[in-house]
Design a protein that fits this description.
heterodimer, A: 10% strand, B: alpha/beta, 9-stranded mixed β-sheet, 32% helix
Chain lengths: 1034, 479
């Protein structure tokens, strides 16, 4: 066992070597700081075994507490100020004995390198002065260096000066404004704004722009996106079928709070304890939804209490990360290994949230709820109502056009219809095969009779060509006949003469090709189904033959077994076959009991749409044929109606219009539902408090010592800590004496403006986190935030008006080599915009953005089938239609199990997230090249630029001003012109391709004659939207 | 300029990915496939250089919890217990799901016949004749243990090492650790069987997510659709030659910007757009089985002719292995057989038996089995008590975490073995328990990674796939 027992001897020679090597280093050093230089080393290399966590502590030694570290143990001392030889810690660091060395070579902790050893050595020699971790000391306002009028610049310049560096010159006006606009609103500036500022980039104009943008309602939207990631906000539960929830009114509460610049301490208080405040209002209760945004698990079989404990734990961890920048998650199972947070402290925080009137359920049983009507929903109802009216007009016009073609069609059908016309055509099989051994005989009228073996279960495959008399297949019919050779002359040769058809399939096979394609069947109806209402999952329903589940299926048992039975199956789309293709009908008999294979059957197909394949009645055309009319005018009015209905089904132009109307109507129904009173998940205390316990190793039902609600004493002790409530917790978090919250939030704001924080680990201000790059600046901002009355805008304004913020982001190779991570800010950062801003930017550039604020979630374009795949067809994503399609990404419906696909690097919203991940992958490239929103924006931009000027250069400059906020330079124009010419040549030669490209999205398609030009222009717009510059915060 | 940017680009990348300084690529450490700087992955410097036995993993995930009692864990002695209550001495307080917690635990002996297969004499159920036929290639681990009893937490545990979503998946760790050996395809691909019935267990994308690893390590779902990878297909009306021209123009303009700004990220972006262009050809090619001979479809069974089926995905898995993809994960849903074992469980066996066995044969034929670790299994097993009326064909089984069977084959696994054993009730492990994290540690070891040293710093902690509980490499199953 390796631990900190006194070592018996020293290898003196090694010591000497070490000394001689490091002595000259020492002279150059300024005094070592405990919190900035020493503590991180102790924490990283020692505390894992000799820190706050008692369960992993080795040799009963703590090095995180001064008295223990400096005290005497068994006659030796770990640390003796000023005396290296007597300091056991030092001896164990430099020993050559692998069994004695610290950290032990097999501990997987990095060995201390020379520089690190020198730091520790110097610290001991300088007296081993103790202190606290920097972030746990209350921030004091540091003196501002005199290098600049602006405090931020002063701190930045001070450090640059120390490093012998200079700041970069200001960025060009359009770049500055673009940067500011994205940071404060998430949207690009308009070409007019850019033009105005570029003409007069005075300090005063800049200040005004900053103020204008901070006042914009879009500013609240930008901050809300930050907060939704932190709050792990989602529109669904996240587990099982990922049920919807209606917590979006809380999102609008956040939005309003930011737009009203609500002080952050109030913002905190209402979200933690709005329900407990004396002046409680529905909105204050609404605010507490923050702590209900966690995932909920309604999985069948799960113990709801286990889930409830998970939710409480999630609240504690979220509080830790978002407000305190602490990784409390580790203290769920044991005391923190690095930070002074005990296992018990964790459960004291837990106790604040443990008596919520919830029971761990999910879906629509996730009480407590606030019944709330959103003030933002009515606008959406009006918008959708107007859109439905518009579609109604279009549908009526399309119907009129279609109906006009009906009479001539009917006339011609009637004239040419043979008297013996039949809508169904029985199939003569080329081959019938069995999987398990039945044999088949094809008899007259294409009836197939089973003979021979009687396997328990069997699958029949009937292979046949399409009848020559029809050109397509809309449905097929299965007839099942009794026969004397069957058990009791019934329907099957099985046990009781009844059949059970578990599933059916229709495949198409092509000669010479090994793969088959499956044809989708959407409807099924039978002449008889047993009444199984009282028996769950019994065999009976014909629809159950479509789901590939052998536990259910169709039978006619309890019906007349000596009569023919039949079923009709409707195809999703009319099926067309190539000359070398054949149909394969598969009848599966895989029921639980078996012995119920069909005995005698026939398969027919039809080419008629509508009622023929939806029901069992005689087809309308068949009736017309039989009707023996002398003149068409004498046709029965009802039959005419039925024929018209069928006719319209085959008019694809009309069907498209009708479908658009129907989608709009569904959207209206949904929006209306959301404008009514909703159930928003909120906090409410239950009448009887639950006891809270330490959970041993974090296991939900392993209850340890009882605990009371309490704060983290090592961060900031509370004098009076009896009967604390969530109100006290919120006030403790935003107390001016709390060392963490103001630093953590200032760091978030810095991250919003600079892409990364002054502390590069925004979620960890603890001992294992990153040190601030500018500790004094961070403290100054934290104090400023508190003393301004927690005014977030004040801090953002300060940052925006600094020269540091406004400098150029260009970098020289030297500077890049010197400071690749840009820790010193000798240049502005340059980073890719988050995916949500890229989408919003495209909408603004194209003039498509619907700037409405708040309201029910919307569904931007997403590839087909994404939800279907996860939920095996249970859920389908229907993109929003009309103006709702162009709302900001903030309002995009967030399904936790399948986040919006176009947000390629967003937070996952499963747990809270305050860091920023930026990656650069081919999948991102594909998204920006092929996402419908990007393509539709390109198309609209193409049309607008073409309308702006038919002259190529002018139209390109139009695109550039809207996408890049600047004009193209001559060398860039050459590239675009070249690609434009290439595209134009192609589309002029292939105008149908141009028409195809220019129909993407839901906007009106351009005139045929303009299509090639628009298409060519569209490729240019798409290129421009994909330029690195267009998607980058420069 | 170019040299500097490529060089620095990597440094910036390392730092932006939240990696510790001093980190470097295991891929290049092991001196295998020449991984370019931008596509190679990173691991800790002191990562030991274990000799890798496997170059890749194919994980045949059977979602829902297949019944070990019906398929692999033969307990003939149970017949005499049929219908009797499970003794408390066996149950030992095992938690049940709320579905059966209030029901009497009446014993339902396995309803299938078993026979011994091959030289190894492994017992495999009559429902899996094809898997039986390759038993001499497989290693059956009958002593798998998990600590989760519900689907989502148990599958999350199986695939990320932790029961709550948010950690990187097994495949993401692997692609992070080993890097790419194919410049035209992602390192980690996911294939999900196309089913008609809506499964009760959704396949959440966190099962193949990257957690706190950079998102480039997340699994890419290969879909059975015109767009096999989301956004892969160019819009209708845009031919390849124009796309090429657009990308050439884009590259030219981005290079100008690179010169002006000096930002090395632009160089990476140019490369990623080029890789996107190559993927637009390479993925449809691999997804198109038309160049497979008829004999292959016969080997994998008739369902392999139906695109999107598990069987077709098994053929794809072999194609991906041939192309050097690191982690290939298939999902076959709907093994959650709470009722009607004779029709429900057999349906899943029919879907998967022949193709799973065919994949083993096919890999072996091509000399790929030795370097590919194949894993078959679900998130937990099923309990010995019948659910519903135990003595009717309607009966099923509830979830059971304390023991279940998985099998492995190929890359470094001892073939023709059975490892671990359960008690007479297939309820508790009595010999050589293998926890989910042991499985992870063993798989990583075979890939040349020592699990204890394979860490990533996030939220101030060094995380690893195998977590903090004691974990062992299962030496007994290594060849």
């Amino acid at each position: 066992m390796r631990c900190f027992y006194p070592s018996s001897y020293l290898t003196t020679s090694l010591l000497v070597l070490f000394f001689s090597h490091t002595s000259n280093l020492m002279a150059e050093k300024k005094k070592v700081s405990f919190s900035h230089d020493v503590l991180p080393l102790l924490s990283d290399r020692c505390f894992h075994c000799h820190g706050p966590d008692e369960s992993h502590r080795k040799a009963e030694l703590r090095l995180d507490q001064e008295d223990e570290a400096k005290g005497e143990r068994d006659g030796s001392r770990m640390l003796v100020p000023g005396d290296l030889a007597a300091s056991e810690v030092w001896q164990r660091i430099i020993t050559a004995d692998q069994d004695e060395l610290m950290p032990p070579p097999d501990s997987h902790r990095k060995p201390l390198n020379e520089k690190e050893r020198a730091t520790l050595r110097q610290w001991i020699l300088e007296g081993a002065e103790w202190g606290k971790h920097w972030a746990f000391e209350k921030a004091k306002r540091p003196a501002v260096p005199t290098l600049s009028q602006h405090p931020i610049d002063a701190f930045i310049l001070q450090k640059l000066k120390l490093e012998g560096l200079k700041p970069s010159p200001p960025a060009p006006a359009h770049t500055q404004l673009r940067r500011l606009s994205f940071d404060l609103t998430g949207l690009p500036p308009s070409p007019a704004q850019v033009d105005e500022f570029a003409k007069n980039p005075s300090e005063e104009n800049w200040q005004n722009l900053v103020d204008d943008l901070l006042q914009s309602p879009h500013h609240g939207e930008r901050l809300t996106m930050w907060w939704l990631d932190a709050a792990r906000y989602s529109d669904t539960d996240g587990f099982q079928l990922d049920a919807k929830r209606s917590n979006w009114p809380w999102r609008d509460w956040v939005l309003q709070a930011f737009n009203n610049n609500m002080p952050f301490d109030q913002f905190t208080l209402e979200q933690f304890a709005g329900d407990l405040l004396p002046d409680v209002t529905p909105e204050k209760i609404l605010a507490t939804c923050f702590h209900r945004n966690h995932m909920t698990n309604g999985e069948g079989g799960r113990d709801p209490e286990e889930s409830r404990i998970d939710y409480v734990i999630d609240r504690v961890n979220t509080t830790g990360t978002v407000w305190l920048g602490l990784t409390l998650g580790c203290t769920q199972c044991h005391s923190h290994k690095f930070d002074p947070i005990a296992h018990k402290d964790y459960y004291s925080l837990f106790a604040f949230f443990n008596s919520i009137d919830e029971d761990g359920r999910a879906g629509n049983k996730a009480k407590p709820y606030l019944k709330y009507r959103s003030p933002f929903a009515q606008r959406a109802v009006e918008e959708t109502t107007a859109y439905v009216s518009k579609q109604q007009v279009l549908e009526a016009a399309a119907r009129k056009k279609a109906v006009a073609k009906f009479s001539p069609w009917l006339e011609s059908r009637w004239k040419h219809l043979p008297e013996n016309y039949r809508a169904w055509h029985s199939l003569k099989p080329r081959l019938v095969t069995s999987s398990d051994g039945s044999s088949f005989q094809t008899e007259k009228e294409n009836i197939i009779q089973t003979v021979g073996l009687k396997p328990k279960q069997d699958d029949y495959s009937v292979i046949a060509a399409m009848p020559k008399s029809i050109k397509r297949i809309t449905g097929w019919k299965l007839e099942i006949f009794p026969h004397v050779s069957h058990t009791d002359g019934k329907l099957s040769r099985g046990e009781d003469g009844e059949f059970i058809l578990s599933n059916v399939k229709l495949l198409v096979q092509k000669r010479g090709v090994s793969q088959v394609r499956e044809v989708e069947i959407t409807g099924a109806i039978a002449n008889f189904e047993p009444d199984n209402k009282d028996k769950k999952r019994q065999y009976g329903k014909i629809k159950d033959t479509l789901d590939d589940d052998p536990r259910n299926g169709w039978t006619t048992s309890s019906g007349d077994p000596r009569q023919k039975h039949q079923a009709v199956f409707e195809l999703k789309q009319p099926l067309l076959l190539a000359a070398d293709e054949e149909l394969v009908f598969v009848l599966l008999h895989r029921s639980t009991g078996g012995n119920a294979n069909i005995g005698r059957f026939r398969i027919s197909v039809s080419d008629q749409s509508g009622e023929t394949v939806k029901g069992l009645q005689t087809a309308p055309l068949e009736e017309l044929a039989k009707s023996e009319l002398t003149a068409l005018e004498a046709i029965d009015a009802k039959l005419r109606e039925r024929l018209l209905a069928q006719f319209l089904l085959d008019d694809s132009v009309y069907q498209k219009s009708l479908n658009e109307l129907e989608v709009a109507k569904v959207q209206l129904v949904e929006v209306k539902k959301r404008s009514k009173e909703l159930s928003v998940m909120v906090l409410a205390e239950r009448k009887e408090k639950r006891d809270s316990h330490v959970l041993i190793r974090g296991v939900w039902d392993a209850k340890g010592k009882k605990v009371q609600p309490g704060i983290l004493p090592a961060i900031l002790p509370l004098p009076n800590s009896k009967d604390l409530t969530r109100v006290d917790l919120a006030k403790w978090l935003t107390s001016p004496d709390n060392p963490l919250t103001a630093r953590v939030i200032s760091n978030h704001l810095w991250q919003i403006m600079f892409g990364s924080g002054l502390v590069r680990s925004p979620d960890d201000f603890g001992l294992q986190g990153k040190m601030p790059t500018h500790p004094d600046l961070l403290d100054w901002l934290a104090v400023e935030l508190v003393e301004s009355g927690w005014d977030l805008r004040h801090i953002l304004r300060l940052i925006a008006t600094s020269e540091t913020y406004r400098q150029s982001s260009h970098v020289t190779p030297d500077l890049l080599a010197r400071d690749p991570q840009n820790l010193l800010l000798a240049r502005a950062p340059r980073f890719r915009l988050p995916a949500w801003m890229i989408r919003d930017n495209a909408l603004v550039a194209a003039g498509l953005l619907n700037p409405a604020i708040g309201g029910p979630p919307v569904k931007p374009w997403q590839p087909k089938g994404v939800w279907n795949e996860i939920f095996m067809g249970r859920l389908t994503y229907q993109p929003s239609v009309g103006p709702a399609q162009y709302r900001r990404t903030l309002y995009a419906f967030w399904r936790r199990s399948s986040a919006p696909t176009f947000l390629f690097d967003s937070a996952q919203r499963r747990a809270c997230s305050v860091g920023i991940s930026r990656t650069n992958t081919p999948l991102h490239a594909l998204t920006l090249l092929n996402d419908t929103t990007m393509l539709e924006a390109s198309r609209v931009l193409a049309e607008k630029s073409y309308q702006h000027s038919s002259e190529l250069l002018a139209s390109m400059q139009y695109l550039a001003l809207h996408i890049l906020s600047r004009e193209l330079k001559a060398d860039e124009v050459l590239v675009f012109k070249r690609e434009h010419q290439r595209a134009l040549n192609y589309y002029l030669a292939k105008p149908t391709q141009a028409s195809l490209l220019t129909t993407v999205g839901q906007q009106k398609t351009p005139d045929q004659k303009n299509a090639p030009r628009i298409a060519a222009q569209m490729t240019i717009a798409s290129m421009m939207l994909n330029l690195d510059e267009a998607i980058t915060h420069e | 300029m170019n040299n500097i940017t490529t060089h620095l680009n990597r440094r910036v990348f390392l730092q932006q990915s939240g990696l510790n300084l001093g980190a470097m690529a295991l891929g290049s450490l092991l001196g295998r496939e020449s991984a370019s700087a931008a596509s190679s992955a990173i691991s800790s410097l002191d990562l030991p250089q274990l000799a890798p036995k496997a170059k890749r993993v194919i994980f045949l995930t059977q979602s829902g919890g297949p019944s070990q009692l019906e398929l692999y864990d033969h307990k003939p002695g149970l017949m005499k217990w049929a219908g009797q209550e499970l003794p408390e001495s066996v149950r030992q307080g095992q938690r049940l799901t709320t579905m059966t917690a209030k029901q009497k635990q009446l014993i339902l002996p396995g309803i299938t016949k078993f026979s011994q297969h091959g030289k190894s004499g492994a017992t495999v159920s009559e429902w899996l004749p094809h898997i039986g036929s390759v038993a001499d290639e497989l290693c059956f681990v009958k002593s798998m243990v998990t600590d989760q009893i519900n689907h989502a937490p148990a599958m999350t545990k199986m695939l990320t090492g932790h029961q709550l979503p948010g950690r990187p998946s097994f495949g993401a760790w692997t692609s992070y650790g080993l890097g790419s050996s194919n410049k035209n395809l992602p390192d980690f691909l996911v294939l999900i069987s196309k089913m008609k019935r809506a499964s009760d267990q959704p396949l959440y994308d966190h099962y193949w997510g990257s957690g706190f690893l950079p998102s480039r390590y997340q699994g890419v779902k290969l879909r059975n659709s015109k767009d096999p990878v989301l956004y892969l297909r160019d819009p209708d009306g845009l031919p390849r030659e124009l796309r090429r021209g657009m990308l050439d123009g884009l590259g030219e303009l981005n290079r100008k910007r690179l010169e002006q700004t000096g930002d090395p990220e632009i160089a990476t972006r140019i490369k990623q757009y080029e890789m996107a262009f190559r993927m637009q050809t390479s993925i449809p090619e691999l997804n198109d089985l038309r160049d497979e001979p008829e004999s292959i479809f016969e080997l994998y069974g008739s369902d392999s002719r139906r695109p999107g089926s598990y069987a077709a995905n098994c053929i794809l898995a072999r194609r991906l292995a041939e192309r050097g993809v690191r982690f290939i994960q298939l999902f076959h849903p709907d093994w959650d057989h709470h009722s009607r074992l004779p029709s429900w469980c057999t349906a899943r066996c029919r879907d998967t038996d022949q193709p799973s066995a065919a994949l083993i044969k096919d890999l072996k034929m091509r000399g790929l089995l030795d370097e590919t670790l194949v894993i078959w299994g679900g998130e937990f097993g099923r309990g010995v008590a019948g659910q519903g009326k135990w003595d009717s064909p309607e009966a099923g089984r509830d979830h059971h975490p304390r023991c279940f069977t998985m099998w492995m084959a190929g890359g470094g696994i001892k073939p023709g073995t059975t490892y671990g054993a359960t008690d007479d009730f297939s309820y508790n492990v009595v010999e050589n328990p293998v926890h989910v994290r042991d499985l992870h540690a063993t798989a990583l070891e075979l890939l040349g990674i020592e699990h204890e040293k394979f860490t990533f710093r996030a939220q101030g902690l060094d995380f690893r796939l195998t977590g903090v509980e004691p974990t062992k490499v299962v030496k007994g199953i290594l060849a």
